[in-house]
Specification:
The protein contains six helices and nine strands. The chain is an alpha+beta fold and 205 residues long. Helix 3 (32-39) runs antiparallel to helix 4 (43-50).
């Protein structure tokens, strides 16, 4: 009776003491929150969980979950966030987030989502036909300040008979503390179309 528990403990120790096996076990945890708790077990587990190569594999295996969506009901009210049913671990994360947009006021604005970030731009156009600055919010980290992206720079092409048509902001990041914003501004004149690409890099603290 006493040998079985000892043998089981030895088998568990043999698995968890193997760095390769431990990495594979951590890789298969279902949620990032589970990985955080596992990283708190000991320094060795933390080093495994925080390794850049491991995190890249973890993100590749666990694609981001759809937490909810925004519903636009009227033109004078901000979109309303509707959370989707989630497992308990993710439900707790959503409850701690800040998805409410009422503080932005009654202005009509364009809403887009990229990698867990909200991109908010009002529809009002400046006289030079560039869009208003874009605000970037991270609902899952409400303590972070709202970042303000500058307007698209004015170049000579804006005053050369071109019509400012549209713009699209793309956000990329490696999951670390650095994000890159790429703004594609599209203008046209007669049979000619021009696409300007602007890049901005921000470090998140």
């Amino acid at each position: 009776g006493k040998r079985a528990p000892a043998a089981a403990a030895a088998a568990i120790s043999a698995v968890l003491d193997d760095d390769d096996l431990l990495g594979e076990i951590l890789l298969r945890l279902a949620f990032p929150t589970s990985l955080v708790r596992a990283a708190l077990v000991c320094k060795r587990w933390l080093l495994h969980a925080a390794a850049p190569a491991f995190l890249r594999r973890f993100r590749g295996l666990h694609q981001p979950s759809l937490l909810g969506f925004y519903v636009v009901s009227t033109a004078i009210h901000p979109p309303r966030f509707v959370a989707l049913p989630q497992p308990p671990e993710l439900a707790d994360v959503v409850r701690r987030g800040s998805f409410d947009l009422d503080s932005l006021g009654p202005d009509r604005f364009d809403l887009d989502c990229w990698n867990g970030l909200l991109l908010l731009s009002t529809f009002e156009m400046y006289p030079d036909r560039t869009m208003n600055p874009t605000r970037v919010r991270c609902p899952l980290y409400p303590a972070r300040d709202t970042a303000i992206l500058p307007t698209v720079p004015i170049t000579s092409i804006h005053h050369d008979g071109f019509t400012y048509h549209d713009r699209e902001i793309l956000v990329s990041g490696s999951g670390g503390q650095c994000l890159s914003y790429f703004c594609l501004a599209i203008m046209d004149k007669e049979q000619q179309t021009v696409v300007d690409v602007y890049a901005l890099q921000q470090v998140i603290s």
